[in-house]
Amino acid sequence: MGEYLSWGHSVADHDGINEFYTNYKKKCMSFSEAESQYSKFFNLEKRSHERIIPILEAILEDGNSEEAAVNIPNNGCINDLPEDIVVEVPAKVNSSGVHGIRLNNYPRAFCSLLNSQVGCIRMTTEAVLNQSKSDAYFALLVDPVVDDARSAEKLLDTMIELQNDYLGYLN
């Protein structure tokens, strides 16, 4: 919740999150020691876990399959969200493409929460298209969880410095 709401940190289960992180870190740090835990990912005999392959096959073969989650423009899948914003929804896939399944009765409260990010997403897109550091800064300031303009400016500078290969065009 803290990703979308400025007060989310005050109600989060910080102990639970920390426990998850600690256990996940231990698992990741010892992952390579237990080959049986990861060897299946390198077995070329097994089918990929990536969903792009079945999606492409369904398009090429007119498979008329259903995917549990795809990222596509809303186009009416979720009421109360802009048509052009990308949403993650279930979809039917066939030779005519990927077609989102309308989510009837989607809670308006969730839409309100998601809509609080729409302006930030659009402004971030404009910053990239305009290659504008100033636009990127304003996009940060629109984010509902950003509560300090100077910290946002420092964050942006740090992001550009550390990810210069990707964000250097914002200098």
Task: Please give a structural write-up.
This protein has 171 residues and is an alpha+beta fold. It has three domains: 8-42; 52-100, no CATH class; 116-170, no CATH class. Helices cover 47% and strands 13% of the residues. The longest helix has 23 residues, at 108-130.
Please state the structural category: alpha+beta
Largest sheet: 3 strands, antiparallel
Helix count, DSSP H or I runs of 4 or more residues: 7
How many E strands? 3
What is the gyration radius calculated from CA atoms? Answer: 21 Å
Helix/strand order: HHHEEEHHHH
Strand content: 5-15%
Ends apart, CA distance between termini: 32 Å
Query: How many discrete structural domains?
Result: 3
Morphology:
globular
Average pLDDT over all residues: 88
> Which regions are unreliable across 5 or more consecutive residues at pLDDT < 50?
none
Report helical residue fraction.
Answer: 40-55%
Order of strands across the biggest sheet? Answer: 1-2-3
SSE blueprint and pairings:
Blueprint: H1 14-30, H2 35-38, H3 52-60, E1 65-73, E2 86-94, E3 97-100, H4 108-130, H5 133-142, H6 149-162, H7 164-167
Antiparallel strand pairs: 1-2, 2-3
Question: What key phrases describe this protein's structure?
Answer:
3-stranded antiparallel sheet, 3 domains, 171 residues, 47% helix, 3 strands, alpha+beta, globular
Brief synopsis:
The chain is α+β, with helices and mostly antiparallel strands and 171 residues long. It has helices spanning 14-30, 35-38, 52-60, 108-130, 133-142, 149-162, 164-167, and strands at 65-73, 86-94, 97-100.
